[in-house]
Amino acid sequence: MSVRIEKVNSQMLQTLSIILQREMPSECGLVNINAVQTSSDITMAKVYYGVLGDETQTTMAQAWIEKHTKTVQHHLSQELRHMRRVPQLRFIYDEGSQHSIRVTQILDELKRQEEER
Question: What is the CATH number of domain 3-116?
C-alpha cells in the first residue's frame, strides 16, 4: 500500500468518525470506525465499523448507516474538499468489536467466580 493511500485511509477514518458521532442519533449506540481500505485509484473505500451497544442498537445503527450513506458521503466530500476525488463509501459491519466485548465479559465472569472460591 502506498504512503498516499495510507494517508487517505487515516484521514477518512478520522473524518468519518467525527461525522458519524455528529450525525448519528444516540439511540444507535456508539459507532466506531475500525478501518478504512481505499482502492489504489481512490474510487472506492470499504469502511469497517462496529457498534458498542445491544443487538437493538446494532440493528438500528446498521439501518441508519444503510439509509444515510449518501448523506455521510456528502459530508465527507465537504470536509475533504482538498481532495480531487473522494471515494465512494461501502460500509461493512465488523463483528470483531462485539466478539472482543463478549470475550471481556466472559473473562470478567470467570475472574469473579474464581474470587468467590
Answer: 3.30.300.20
